[in-house]
Structures are given as structure tokens and as C-alpha cells.
Amino acid sequence: MSDNKPVIRMDAEAPEGFEGEGFFATKLSSVIGMARKFSLWPLPFATSCCGIEFMATLNPTFDASRFGMERNSFSPRQADMLMVCGTISKKLGPVLKQVYTQMAEPKWVIAVGACASSGGIFDTYSVLQGIDRIIPVDVYVPGCPPRPEQIIEGVMQVQALCEGESIRRRDLPEYQQLLASYDIK
Amino acid sequence: MTNDFVLEAITREFPESVISHDTPYDFLTLEIKKEDIKKVIHHLKDSSLQINFLTDICGIHYPETPEKEIGVIYHLHNMMTNFRIRLKTFMTRENAEVDSMTDLYAGANWMERETFDFYGIKFKGHPDLRVILNMEDLGYHPMLKEYRLEDGTRTDKDDKMFGR
Question: PANTHER family from the entry (chain B) (predicted)?
């Protein structure tokens, strides 16, 4: 019998709060943040090589599902993490913006790879020089293409964002201004 | 069908239209006057030469030669004898307009739209001349050698990394 089984910890750390016999009191934000953190539903917007790396991320080898992103939503209305993997041409820009607009709040965006982050090597007339031209981006994943570990790191960054985010952040005037600056209602 | 045979047939039929001819890599290439290009291609298609397939239409831009600045190049193919011919026609920038081949070859429709999209060459008689590949509000014809290839608006890109 092997006695070197890996120990898999399935318990997340509890947020700060008061614990007592049979009760636990904490902030609503923390509970909601924790729930969001472990139930991110990604919307893969995969256009090229980074998309293939993202598929590898979903493979059993890297197993993105252990982060709670089991279900990849292909409907923007049911997703809360937009993962833009690959080159976005200027012609595709409006489509991406429409997908982002259709996503329900709260939503986070990861720009996976050099192309989505800055246009990458395609420094030319037809390619959008970074998706942050048209939609706000939370996390940039460098690499061309990034390895699955890097994509997972990006997801973990988003998880950290979700966890620490106040549930009222999206109502802040700054956030409204940010969306207005991108002309998103 | 040989190059010499076709060349002779064309020069006999249109002695005024052929400006020059050459056979680079054994590929008959003629430069035709812009006004006569449609006449010549029509003849190639409907005569016994039976050049029945339009392989490609594309544009070219030579900023150094103002009187031959914009060019349109036609590749034609006879499928029965596997004979290929290339026709070029040149024009000035102000006068960048040639006759459309859409009524001779239906496939010319998209090729001419592409050429218009990238070079701004107008095609007289084209049923629906609008851009086909680039986004509609790009605002310029990117393959003319007068626009920067890159966006040029991003300040956070390090030129060292992009070989410029």
C-alpha cells in the first residue's frame, strides 16, 4: 500500500469573524466574496494559440475545475469571468464589447497572452492593440502563449480580487465612470 | 498553347494596347493600357484562346513612379490546356479607376472589393463596391505605402521588443 497519497485540502480558509459555539458571525462582503471566489464561471473567448493553451488548462493535467470554474459558460449572461485568449482584430472588437456588455455584474476580465494584452507581435493596422482599448481589464497574463500554469495564476489573481471586493464596489461612482469612459452602459 | 503563340495572338489583335511583355519564370506577363484592359480580357475569354478562369485580381503600389503609381494585376488561367497568363495595368494616383470584370468573371466581385479595400482603386461598373476584409470605419487603405503599419498610438510598447 502506498502511504504517500497527496493530501488534498478541500477547505478554504474562513474569513475574519467571531466564532462561537454553533455560530459564526462575519461580514456579508466576506461571505459573498468567498462564494464568488470559488464559483467563477469563465467565458472562454478563445481566438488563437492562447485559446489552445486555455484548453490545456481545462485538461485533467492542469484541471482548472479545482478552482471552482467547472462550468465554462458559453452564454455571456451566465458568466462572470471573461477570458480573452488570443488576437482580437479591430473587426472583432465590437463583438467582444457586446459579449462583455451582455455579461451580468459582477464581472472580471482576464487578458490572456501578449495579443489580448497589447496586440503582441501583431503590431499592424488590422489588430486591436490590446483589449483594454475597448473593455476594462482586471488581470493581464503575459506570455506568447502563456503556459497553463500562468493562466491558472491569472485566475488566482482574479480570485484574490473577488475575495477582497466589496459587494458595493460596482455601485461606486468611480466604477460607473470607468464604464462610461469605455462607453459601456 | 505556348507563350509565343498567345503573345502573338494578343499583339496581332491589339497592337496598340500592349505596352510591354516579358516572360519571367516562363510566365507570360503583359502590360496593357488601362483603357483597353477589359477589351483584352474579354477577347482572351471569348476567343479561341478560351482563357476561362480568373485566378486573381490584386493591386500594387509604387510610390516612386508617379505616372505608374497604382497597378492592377490580373492572373488568368485556361483550365483545358493549363495555360496561365498575367496582365498588368498601371495608372496614376488621381486616376485610380479601371473597368470592372464582374460581368466577365463572377469571381471578380470579391477580388475587386478586396483590391478596393486595400488600395482604394475604384472599379467602374462594379455592382457593390465596398470594403470586404477590413472594418468599415478603418478610414484608410492599409496596403498603400503611406500609412504606418502599426497603430502608433500605444506608448507602452518597447520598440526594442518589436524589431522596429
Answer: NADH DEHYDROGENASE [UBIQUINONE] IRON-SULFUR PROTEIN 3, MITOCHONDRIAL, NADH DEHYDROGENASE UBIQUINONE IRON-SULFUR PROTEIN 3
CATH architecture of B3-148: 2-Layer Sandwich (3.30)
Q: Is residue A24 part of a domain?
A: no
- B150: contact with A, CB 8 A cutoff: yes
Residue B13 is given by DSSP the state H
Report the C-alpha gap between A39 and A21 in whole angstroms.
28
Q: Is the peptide bond before A145 cis (omega within 30 degrees of 0)?
A: yes
Q: How confident is the model at residue B164, as a pLDDT?
A: 45
CA distance B6 to B26: 13
Residue A33 included in any domain: no
Cβ–Cβ contacts within 10 Å for residue B15, how many? 8
Q: Are B1 and B79 in contact (CB under 8 A)?
A: no
Of A91, A118, A125, the CB nearest to B142: A125
> Is B153 in Cβ contact with A129 (below 8 Å)?
yes
- For the segment A34-42, the average pLDDT, to the nearest whole number, is 88
Hey, what amino acid is at A82?
A: L
Query: In chain B, whose CA is at the least distance from the CA of A128?
Result: B151
Banded model confidence at residue A31, pLDDT cuts 50, 70, 90: confident
- The number of distinct structural domains making up chain A is 1
Output the nine-digit C-alpha cell for A104: 451580468
Chain B: give the shortest CA distance to residue A134, in Å: 14
Output the 3-class SS for A152-174: HHHHHHHHHHHHHCCCCHHHCHH
User: Is the pLDDT at B87 greater than 80, yes or no?
Assistant: yes
Give dist(CA B109, CA B115) in Å, integer. 10
With residue B40 as reference, give the H or E element that holds it.
Answer: helix B37-46
Q: Could you read off the pLDDT of A63-89 as tens digits, one per residue?
A: 888 888 888 888 999 899 999 999 999
* Element spanning B116, H or E: helix B108-119
